[in-house]
């Protein structure tokens, strides 16, 4: 696969809509697939809203926005992806879900098509080994919010070919991103460092070192982070943060990565952060109100 000319995205959540957004703006036709038709509708509305924001700021003209939106089609069946040169999986961070997706989609793809995962933490070699194309399988890890964040981490599995790596690096650059290459260890680079920091903030909250407001203010004003760690956890999704901690804990075999019990409790309560309307903050009120 020398040059990628069409993109499929599986999972129309916060990451899937962002990936579709930047791919369409890069001039590529995009097929966005999700099991849930409501998620697809919401994703299209979010993409249009985020492009409007770029138009209002002068970074995009209205005609380019309309053309980009016109390049995105949606579907609830994997069969809609059969002509794509690359399919980027951005479904829920659950290994069984991803494996089931790869099994069904690889049966439909052209033999030369590339399969990429936007996983935050799951080993690429393990995911690749469960497909029919480990040499054309790769980790392509975008950051949230995708239209704003400059980085794409690229992770080769043990079998990933140089041709696949070069094609995906060129695609990331075409989407306006800068790449960093990470080795295939649990949670790669960004989340190896970032998510234990968020988990530690939750542990500090559990121990009463500070309340939500104090912990976030301390890290924003004391370490110049654009968001406090609890606000950022809510933004990423607490289910995703917990899934990453579990992959780190199991994959590194080191107790220093154990998930904070309070993080587990929030996820068990369904308080998953912004996408659920409630996490360390309650988003039903403006400004969002700390829940502890
Ligand atoms: C979990 C993983 O696997 C990996 C990850 O992604 S970890 C998470 C990584 N992400 C972060 O750490 C994000 C940290 N937060 C930030 O950088 C900032 O708070 C933020 C960029 C999200 C918002 O910044 P802000 O200054 O509070 O908001 P705001 O001024 O409204 O927006 C800044 C810019 O982003 C744009 N923007 C904000 N959210 C956007 C979105 N969802 N989509 C498109 N554009 C967006 C705004 O239009 C604005 O653009 P300009 O610079 O052109 O004016
Ligand atoms: N959130 C973040 O900051 C980042 C997340 N990631 C990674 O990106 C991926 C997606 O995360 P995110 O967008 O936040 O998650 P979301 O929960 O926002 O979205 C996941 C989407 O995938 C859908 N889905 C679940 N199962 C399937 C399936 N079998 N086929 C098709 N679609 C499916 C979900 O549908 P339903 O709601 O119906 O279950 C949902 O619409 C994860 O691997 C995550 O680790 C990577 C970088 C940053």
From TrEMBL:
The protein's Enzyme Commission number: 1.1.1.157
Any one GO MF annotation of this record: NAD+ binding
Annotated ranges, domain 3-hydroxyacyl-CoA dehydrogenase NAD binding: 7-184
Site feature (Important for catalytic activity) residues: 141
SUPFAM superfamilies tied to this protein: 6-phosphogluconate dehydrogenase C-terminal domain-like, NAD(P)-binding Rossmann-fold domains
Enzyme class, spelled out: oxidoreductase
Residue ranges of every copy of the 3-hydroxyacyl-CoA dehydrogenase C-terminal domain listed in the record: 188-283
Record-level GO BP terms: fatty acid metabolic process
Residues reported in the UniProt entry to bind NAD(+): 11-16, 34, 93, 98, 120, 144, 275
InterPro entries the record matches: 3-OHacyl-CoA_DH, 3-OHacyl-CoA_DH_NAD-bd, 3HC_DH_C, 6-PGluconate_DH-like_C_sf, 6PGD_dom2, NAD(P)-bd_dom_sf
Superkingdom: Bacteria
Signal peptide residue numbers: none
Entry keyword set: NAD, Oxidoreductase
Record's protein name: 3-hydroxybutyryl-CoA dehydrogenase
